[in-house]
Amino acid sequence: MANSANISEFSGIWVFCEQREGKLMSTDIELISEGRKLADERGTELVGLLLGGAGVGSAAKEMGGYGADKMIVVEDEKLAVYTTDAYTKVICDVITDKKPEVFLIGASNIGRDLGPRVAARLHTGLCADCAHLDINMELYTEFLREASTVDVDSVKFDMEDTNMKMTRPAFGGHMMATIICPRFRPCMATVRPGVLKKAAFDQAKADACRIETVNAVLSEDDLRTKVLEVVKETRKMVDLIGAEVIVAVGNGISKDPQKGIAAANALAEAFGGGVVGASRAVTDAGWLTADHQVGQTGKTVRPKIYVALGISGAIQHRAGMQDSELIIAVNTNEDAPIFEAADYGLVGDLFEIAPLMTEAVKSAKAAG
Amino acid sequence: MILSREHELMRKNFRNFAETEFTTEIQEELDRNGGFNWEVWEKIARYGFAGTKIPVEYGGQGGDYLAYALMNEEFSRVCPVLAIYANTPNSLGGGPLLACGNEEQLKKYLTPAAKGEKHIVFALTEPGAGSDPGSMTTKATPDGDYYILNGRKCFISGAPIADYAIVYARTNPALRGAKGISMFIVDMHLEGVSCGKPEPKMGISGYPTSDIVFDNVRVHKDDLLGPLDRGYAVAMKTLDGGRLGVAAQSLGIAQGALEEAVSYAKERKQFGKPISYNQGVSFMLADMATEIEAARNLIYSAAQAKDSDAKDASIQCSMAKYYASEMANRVCGKAIQIHGGYGFIKEYKVERLYRDARVMTLYEGTSQVQQIVISRSLLK
Amino acid sequence: MRIYVCVKQVPDTSGKVAVNENGTLDRASMATIINPDDMSAMEAALRIKDETGCQVTAVTMGPPPAEGMLRELIAMGADDGVLISGREFGGSDTFATSQIVAGALSHLGVGEEDIIFCGRQAIDGDTAQVGPQIAEKLNLPQVTYAAAIEKDGKVLKVRRLLEDGYMTVEVQTPCLITCVKELNEPRYMTVKGILECYKKPVAVLDFEALKDEPLIDLDTIGLKGSPTNIFRSFTPPQKGAGQMLAGSPQEMVNELAGQLAAKHVI
Questions:
Q1: Is pLDDT at A256 greater than 50 in this prediction?
Q2: Alpha-carbon distances of A137 from A44, A163, A180, A190, B339, rounded to whole Å
Q3: Distances (CA, A) of B374 to B318, B319, B377, C21
Q4: Per-residue model confidence as pLDDT tens digits over B174-229
Q5: Which has more pLDDT, B173 or C117?
Q6: Are A205 and A67 found together in one domain?
Q7: Could you tell me if C218 lies within 8 Å of chain B, comparing CB atoms?
Q8: Which alpha helices (H) appear in chain B, and where do they start and end?
Q9: What's the CA gap between B31 and B348, in Å, rounded?
Q10: Which residues in C lie closer than 8 A to residue A112 (C-beta atoms)?
Q11: Distance between CA atoms of C121 and B19, rounded to whole angstroms?
Q12: Residue A336 belongs to a domain with what CATH number?
């Protein structure tokens, strides 16, 4: 069962390209861009794997524009809508046949359903929710130099190591851990949406992208779940990841949650197209829905401006926003940890300060 | 005192429930507007807290006095008035029924109270008869299969929401003092029963207190509770358990106030450092914590005495109530002192705890009544 | 019919987190809680029990003190508990853990009408992998991210959350479902439940009991056998301290606006 002896037979960096209703996801571009980097480090090809209903392959070449050398497309009506069983079977069949060295999946609600199932069936390791990937040891040590407190020069690393180094937050963001999967292949990772950078699109590369079609072998018996309906929520979901300005509220609004949220909304609007985020305390209390949540269990964001109103800044929250370009924090407690992450700290009551900020931003914009 | 693993788990559960369900919004709303929070009540009922100390065969949870004390302590630590919600059916409401109800009465009245389906309250005090039962004027006159009740009870906690009341009434005018008094279970929906307007109170706002007026109320003789003419002795027995409950409420209030004071003392900076750095403040905290721990041990010990039917259990309950209620008032006073001017502002929880603590030395036997009980046992 | 609920005792990462010299979590010094999503899984099982009277078994893998958590779940309403515990299991990654748990469940027997509930993910690892991997090892269908469950005999209709909506999935028992906190509001323990919880059975399955289970590959369990290993763990550097603004609220806001304007941020 164990395939530890055959590591050398595996080659190529693969990315699972998730689609919903036939449309590729924004995460796919992030993963393909990152996969390109890894394939170059390893001197191998980058392959995207796209499953879907008839015609899904028409969008495949686009992935070439972000770096895919080849797209493997599996079209079958049984793959139009995601089901665990069908996708797992088809993917495991293709991987068993073609033996990639690395297989990346976006950590969406679908990717996190699929990834573990595939890894278990292939008898290999899977690292969840990765935030950073390296193969080349020099690049990895450079990363450590920048992103850790490790004294890199005093550590003896095996510079020939070719395992993919998968780095993820651990223990609610208090630590980072780099995981490897030395004995089994493919080495699998799910990757956090919104964390990796997208490459620029290149039409020439898109045109050069090869397409390989593979037929699915699926019988009705393979499918044990039935999707009765797929519903897009009419409720407007907050696009935290794409937002340039986020005004987030924390437990500090508890005195009058509605008023606090309104103040945050006003400030976000004043900045122009900002959106309202929240700490876990706020979404747990039900004052805002879960799609507003920033942090370890919520979304990772890196807007140009992040304003934290009445957020104490527990490490789980900071894990999701500390890479923002500019952080402004308002809190009544001058010792609140949020101020450690902030570029500008204002000690005071958000109910008083937020409206003043709104006015100041408005008049600065009017003047500018 | 080292608790059993079951009691430790109970404490954890009571605390978790109180911290989760007794939200600041609910507490402040009740304090401001009074009334009664039916949603919290529904949850207290759903999880059986209304029957913590009532036997399982009567719809309760089968817990002991220590479980009951822990519930009162942990609930009061977060919100004293909501602790009273869960306390009433376990103590003054259910107590007299458990002490002398017949099987039919237990099934009919105690079971729904334990499950939180019905509210039972305790109606002893009268405008002219507080600590002195001899002055009781409410009377019950036999009339065939019925007794006719006439009179007025006052300061009855929970009266406006009650379905049933345990009512004390004079059945034998020839007997003097505490004798000649009987207990009745009165359906509050009977003709002739009415409640006064809820009293505006200094504290524990959110559990309505009012008069009950009985105007020729016909109570069936099946609803006579316990022996005719000797009901007051039973009332006194019931008060033991209730006193333990008040003691535990006092303990919880004090604990809550201490925690508020500690966190404030660490946060509040004056002259460049937290005020907790001043011995004037930190020694107050030390005194508060020590008195709280002393009360806790006294209360748990009294609870265990009740659970093992110890001879001196009744005196221990009086001591626990006397000490803990006075202690809670001292501790809340100090907690406010540590808060300085902020402690006088409603925004700070200690302000409310201070007001809630005040009734603890008054209801279910004033401190002076406890002193009488304790000293009589020494001097008899 | 029996429902297994897989639960994990986790350090309460919402409080202070203690880290050992070697970069691992100092679990001993931290308060532990029942993983929040697992509480939703337990509630889902108990609601089915309320309706059908089925047996609910809480299953966990962990050190011996995890028994306390099983007692709490029994006090909530579970009928019994199973503690999978052994030094050989320590340090297992998700792949290794799921093999052991699947082996244990298979040892206990998963019948035609049975359901396995798991939490979506544990707050100490946030991987969400063990549930699906148990399902794979047991060759059962799975539905993850369950936010609503309707049961009609052997058929379950599950509302599965997606980022941009949801899908409704139909599945038959035996199956595995992972639950999110939107699914329900977990119940509290009762005094009666607490008084009974230490009298109900908690079985311990150790290495000896499970080593011959065909689902468990002894080469891939424990710290050494797990397919994934920690290559390095580290703490991120603290960002340089920002600037604390001084003065009245209006002065602070004016200063801020001035600086932002100077940087062309606004």
A1: yes
A2: 16, 9, 12, 21, 58
A3: 7, 7, 5, 58
A4: 988 888 999 999 999 999 999 999 999 999 999 999 999 999 999 999 999 999 99
A5: C117
A6: yes
A7: no
A8: 5-21, 24-33, 38-46, 65-78, 80-88, 95-100, 103-105, 111-114, 231-267, 279-307, 313-339, 349-358, 367-379
A9: 13
A10: 128-129, 144
A11: 25
A12: 3.40.50.1220
Nearest to A312 by CA among A243, A238, A254, A241: A254
Contacts of B201 (CB under 8 A, 6+ apart): B209, B359
> Which residue numbers of B are catalytic?
364
Q: Do B6 and C195 touch (CB under 8 A)?
A: yes
Interatomic CA distance for residues B25 and B78, integer angstroms: 12
Chain A residues with CB-CB distance to C17 below 8 A: 171-172, 174, 315
Query: What is the reported pTM?
Result: 0.87
Same-domain pairing of A117 and A19: yes
Q: How many CA atoms lie within 13 A of B67 on its CB side?
A: 28
Residue A227, in any domain of the structure? no
Residue A235, in any domain of the structure? no
Answer whether C189 touches B (CB < 8 Å). Answer: yes
Q: Would the CB atoms of A326 and C265 count as touching at under 8 Å?
A: yes
- Cα–Cα distance, A320 to A295 (Å, whole number): 4
Distances (CA, A) of A19 to A50, B104, B270: 8, 68, 59
> Tell me, what's the pLDDT at A175?
79
Q: Are A307 and A216 members of one domain?
A: no
Q: Do residues A173 and A49 both lie within one domain?
A: yes
Q: Which residues of B touch C195 (CB under 8 A)?
A: 6, 61-63
Tally A–C CB contacts below 8 A: 261
Point out the residue among C98, C165, C257 whose CB comes nearest to the CB of A230: C165
Show the low-confidence residues of chain C (pLDDT under 50).
Answer: none
Say yes or no for a CB contact (<8 Å) between C188 and B63: no
Residue of C nearest to A20 (CA): C164
Domains in chain C (CATH in brackets) are 2-225 (3.40.50.620)
Number of domains in chain A: 2
Q: Are residues A180 and A268 in the same domain?
A: no
Question: Contact, B126 vs B153, CB < 8 A?
Answer: yes
What pLDDT score does A2 carry?
A: 46
| Cβ distance of A128 and C126 shorter than 8 Å | yes
DSSP C15-74: S---B-TTSSB-GGGS-EEE-HHHHHHHHHHHHHHHHH--EEEEEEES-GGGHHHHHHHH
**Residue B244 corresponds to which amino acid?**
L
Contact yes or no for C197 and B9 at CB 8 A: yes
Q: How far is B339 from chain C (nearest CA, A)?
A: 23
- Interface pTM, i.e. ipTM: 0.93
Residue whose C-alpha is closest to residue A168's, from A190, A184, A194: A190
Residue C129 at interface with chain A, using a CB cutoff of 8 Å: yes
In this complex, is the C-beta atom of C148 within 8 Å of any C-beta atom belonging to chain A? no
Q: Which pair of structure tokens corresponds to residue B172?
A: 């034998």
pLDDT at B239 over 90: no
Which domain covers residue A27, as residue numbers?
Answer: 7-222
Tell me: the pLDDT tens digits for C227-241? 999 999 888 776 566
Backbone angles phi, psi at A16, to 5 degrees: -80, 120
**Residue the block writes with tokens 């009419």:** A234
Rounded to an integer, what distance in angstroms lies between the CA atom of residue C33 and that of residue C11?
6
pLDDT of res. A234: 58
CATH number at residue A148: 3.40.50.620
- Is A62 part of a structural domain of the chain? yes
Tokens representing residue A61 in the block: 């070449």
**List of chain C residues whose C-beta atoms are within 8 Å of the C-beta of residue A144:** 232, 234
Does residue A256 share a domain with residue A208?
no
Domain co-membership, A203 together with A344:
no
> Is residue A233 in some structural domain?
no
Question: Closest residue of B to C196, CA-based?
Answer: B6
All domains in chain B, ordered by first residue? 5-114 (1.10.540.10), 120-230 (2.40.110.10), 233-379 (1.20.140.10)
